[in-house]
């Protein structure tokens, strides 16, 4: 008998943590951090105590009490939870967003953590650039696409899917009760929709499908931009802006960063980044340049030649930059991450002070409601588990599919009703 438990992603966007068990063996799909700006016990200036990152989250129910998973030295006063590997657990990560990988550094190094080669490369680049991991850095193993790995009674296959980060994956876990497919985060409006379609066809007829439903959380949806639409909007704004351009791009969206650098170069502008981002991009093979105090004079003289990405801590620099009606600020899914982020209103306040216009041109990494339906019509699973959504009940199953709405830490028997 194979079972599934959900320790995250239930009624919320992100924090995916899915445990599949059979015969005492365990497959853990994703190990994400709870991420809700402005919500939760750890928000604003409040952070887990240094050296207590895991134990503080365990005590506040923000990390699951799974035995033989964590580094023993991180458990501290959690005496009733055995740490260290027992050799029966393997972890498979879909992609390098914090809500899917953010807790993986707490996993015991003896436990194999598999991910796409691109995810391994990206996480290594973040580490060498000095990114704060909030604890330990995970030890990842590269896993080739469509080449199954046997672990205990399971066989696990990784498939590439399209998302707003390179190396995104979906998985198929073969159990004694049939295949459990997990979409991870995916979309059809990105640069590689064929990958997502291929995954859907490969897991067609799965015993169970765990499907993300992020966009179902937001009611009416505007028409979805493609990544090519975003590139074109970026170029159009640059052409129409006579002065300085400020921008915020999510740095882990490497393909968009590379496209924006290329567009900027073609239009005679230099894109300048914060130093740590520059180190990360260079580690990923991009030709990126960081800004410093030496750039201030040339920017003042020729603002039309530059694009600058500032972190929130650097927004006061706007007071010394040539802002005003000839400048503009472009938001392309960088921080602040959206209107739900407390810094969103603060950014608008700063732009009002410097009399600078604002453009939002990004596009999301998640399938639209219509595209979710199209993918479900292809996959046609026996059981559908909607996850990673504030409104999972809006994910309607195809005819013949049973929908089970997950509850946190509840055990689901995959043999139930079989045959």
TrEMBL record:
Keyword Cytoplasm set for record: no
Highest taxon in the source lineage: Bacteria
Ranges for domain Metallo-beta-lactamase: 14-220
Coiled coil: none
Alphabetized UniProt keyword annotations: Exonuclease, Hydrolase, Nuclease, RNA-binding
Name of the protein this chain belongs to: Metallo-beta-lactamase domain-containing protein
InterPro entries xref list: Metallo-B-lactamas, RibonucZ/Hydroxyglut_hydro, RNase_J_2
RNA-binding in keyword set: yes
A Pfam family hit: Lactamase_B_2
SUPFAM superfamilies on file: Metallo-hydrolase/oxidoreductase (SSF56281)
Organism from which the protein derives: Sulfobacillus thermotolerans
